[in-house]
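Q&A log
Question type: sequence-to-structure
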Amino acid sequence: MTDSLERPIPPKRLDKVPLGIMFMLGATIMFAGSTALSKWQVETYNFVEVLLFRSVVSLIVCALLIMPRKGMAVFRTNHIGQHFGRSLTQTAAQSAILIALSMMPIAGAMAINFSAPLFATLFAAFWLRERVDLARGLALFVGFGGVLLVISPGADSFTVGALFALANAVLFGSVTAAVRGMSNTESTETLTIYQMGFMTLFFLLATPFFGFVIPNAIDTLALVGIGVFNGFGQYWWTRALSMAPPSAVGPFYYFNLVWAVILGYVFWGDIPTLTLLLGSGIVVGSGLMLLWRESGKKTRAA
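Response status: OK
Response body:
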């Protein structure tokens, strides 16, 4: 979520909300497909090799989608250092979640990942001086409570995989806060293309230290598929946020959790527990509560 939650929504932008929601839902499907394929491949190949394939192919996909519309202007920036730092943090975040996926069920890892908005709000409050009102804070608190219910806190919950998933949430929260500040001067297309470019560079540099195994034909298709899904997901996600306010499309990002539960059951036999379903409902409900409140406030303000 961004500080645009506090601004009136122009009528023309309201007309694009349904399309923005469709882009966000499409993005969640793409991200879920990429995550599932990544979990499969990281059982055979090291996480750096899997992420290298994802970054390279995602960069190609994003370039093909963005550059015909934006041209070389997409690379125009006065904040290359900030792009570098944000991408480095995102590289660490994606490494952490892939390590987590190699150690725990996909639904559990994704559920922990949804604590990222809490950390994003904390980072934004400290770095960007954003105001966190009572309703927004309550919605995030309730959502985080749902995440805790999903992972059923206890001695068995603090596994290495869960710690990596939590590390990803913290790092992704800081990335989200950084994007909020950079979006004042950088377009979503510029943010996306630099992120994909720098991450490709970082994983290329890391490959000699972790090794590279030439994949077979089936695995090659899967690894390329990871990048294709992720590339479209990244592009559709940014399109959703550019078409509609985050308060309108953001809650639909929680459908990632729905797809994770389904994929975990179909491909790994992970049977969703009552606490998983209840906690997921609380997480989604908190997002929808925030959507309802913010949409009502914007309608009155307009």
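Response note: Confidence is low (pLDDT under 50) at residues 1-9.
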